[in-house]
Specification:
Layout lengths: L12 H16 L1 H16 L3 H5 L8 H15 L4 H5 L1 E4 L2 E4 L9 H13 L8 E5 L5 H9 L4 E6 L2 H13 L5 E4 L13 E6 L4 E2 L8 H6 L2 H4 E2 L6 H13 E10 L5 H10 L5 E4 L5 E7 L1
Parallel strand pairs: 3-4, 3-6, 4-5, 6-9, 7-8
Antiparallel strand pairs: 1-2, 9-11, 10-11
The structure holds S-adenosylmethionine.
Length: 292
């Protein structure tokens, strides 16, 4: 593209930020657009927030300006910022993302932080099992927090596992990735685990209508949806796996659909576990923990 066609008034940082706010504030709100700018300047130019704040009058190269132009166009099309820059940060780990994996969510990060601050490593068999691992974010963050643990992570999607393996390597941790169907009794899950964790698909098909375009168009449907007539299918399977593989005194933690907290608890109670519901930072029931 001829850079004269770009709509930026100049290649000064101040003018780039102004155009982003003019074109995107109505769609995302000014605060979020500010966060996008922080992320783009870091990804494209390696600038931190302080450098961005103190460099408003600086100009950037024409080739970099073009990248901001395309980022602006993509954001107008609801493309997630994480897909534009290619990664997200999760519990201090840089996690690469693509349309093959769910973009890790802040709610999930909160759960992992809670596990790290709560989990008591007094188990004889300290293995960790992450079911439905996607990008591998949970497994990788837990391995970083508990380096002595053996971590196994399962997903049905070979493409997601490829990305998860790459993420583990980039973060310098070893995780055993297993391709398997959680609903079909996973081969390769053996022995006892001190911690079993999962963020499985839990959005009911009938909830599609309330979802944002950037989620529906860019996150894989395989990661999100469950049938309306069997929305707890993953929790039933996870409860069965936990019954067999959760070590004595071990901890089970699952992310849940806020609309189905009571029903999801009932699934774990039926397997003899004693589940507790936890609220996320938005005050919504978001995860269940149960000690064996
Ligand atoms: C909600 S995403 C969670 C991804 C990641 N753990 C996270 O928290 O960001 C659910 C994941 O479950 C995987 N999945 C869907 N059906 C599955 C199945 N039957 N067995 C194993 N994994 C499955 C999807 O490929 C997707 O990666």
């Amino acid at each position: 593209m001829n850079t004269r066609n770009l709509r930026f008034r100049s290649n000064r940082v101040r003018d780039i930020a102004s155009l982003f706010h003019e074109e995107l504030d109505g769609m995302y709100g000014s605060g979020e657009v500010g966060v996008f700018l922080d992320m783009l300047f870091e990804a494209f130019l390696g600038w931190d927030k302080v450098r961005l704040l103190t460099s408003r009058e600086q100009t950037i190269d024409q080739s970099d300006l073009l990248r901001f132009h395309w980022a602006l166009e993509d954001l107008k099309q609801s493309r997630p910022i994480q897909h534009i820059i290619g990664y997200t940060d999760f519990c201090g780990c840089r996690i690469a993302v693509s349309p093959d994996v769910l973009i890790p969510r802040p709610e999930t990060e909160e759960i992992v932080q809670w596990i790290i601050s709560t989990f008591n490593i007094q188990h004889s068999a300290f293995n960790i099992l992450d079911l439905c691992t996607g990008s591998g974010c949970i497994a990788i963050a837990l391995k970083k927090a508990f380096p002595a643990a053996d971590v196994t992570a399962v997903d049905v999607s070979p493409k997601a596992l490829e990305m998860a393996r790459q993420n583990a390597q980039n973060n310098g941790v070893e995780v055993r990735f297993v391709e398997g169907d959680v609903l079909g009794g996973v081969d390769g899950v053996n022995g006892q685990y001190g911690l079993i964790v999962s963020n499985p698909p839990y959005v009911m098909e009938k909830e599609r209508a309330q979802m944002q375009r950037n989620v529906l168009d860019y996150d894989p449907a395989l990661a999100l949806f469950v049938p309306d007539d069997d929305p707890l299918r993953f929790y039933n399977a996870i409860a069965t796996i936990a019954k067999e593989h959760l070590a004595d005194g071990g901890l089970l933690v699952v992310e849940i659909n806020e609309a189905l907290a009571a029903e999801t608890c009932a699934v774990f109670k039926a397997q003899g576990l004693n589940p507790n519901v936890h609220e996320d930072f938005r005050g919504k029931p978001r995860w269940i923990s149960a000690q064996a």
